[in-house]
Amino acid sequence: LITNVQEQSTCITYDLEDTTGKIQARMWLDADESEFMVRSRREWTPGAYVRVVGNMKSQQGVDQRSLTAFHLRKVKDFNELTYH
After folding, report:
1. Residue 15: closest CA among 2, 27, 26
2. Other CB atoms closer than 10 Å to residue 65's CB: what's the count?
3. Which of 61, 54, 60 is closest to 24 using CA atoms?
4. Residues sharing a CB contact under 8 Å with residue 75, sequence separation 6 or more, in sequence order
5. The pTM is what?
6. Where are the strands (E) in 1-84, listed by range?
7. Close Cβ partners of 31 (under 8 Å, ≥ 6 residues apart)
8. What is the per-residue pLDDT across 35-80, written as a single tens digit (0 to 9) for each?
């Protein structure tokens, strides 16, 4: 579930929440972004359920994880919520 979206010139930060907790996902913007990606981003708003593909990192000794999102997709079948 997207709870907040912060758009900047080089990236978009999504605050995400599920039954296991909260995390921020950062998606870096491409200068030559496709029209498909621009349309898709309009669906990724607070309150939308999404599936995220990305890379999670954690630093040793720090209790904070970071998620770099490569792809988001809006959930269309809500059975995915119980599947993950």
Report:
1. 2
2. 12
3. 54
4. 48, 49, 50, 51, 81
5. 0.82
6. 2-7, 11-18, 21-28, 50-58, 65-74
7. none
8. 888 788 889 999 999 999 999 988 777 777 889 999 999 998 888 8
The residue type found at 57 is K
Query: What letter would DSSP give residue 34?
Result: -
State the residue for tokens 């990724």.
44
Q: Lay out the sheet containing 11-18: strands in order across.
A: 2-7, 11-18, 21-28, 65-74, 50-58
Using alpha carbons only, how large is the chain's radius of gyration in Å?
13
The residue whose two tokens read 């990236």 is: 11
* pLDDT tops 70 at residue 13: yes
| pLDDT higher than 60, residue 84 | no
Q: Say if residue 20's pLDDT is above 60.
A: yes
Which of helix, strand or coil describes residue 31?
coil
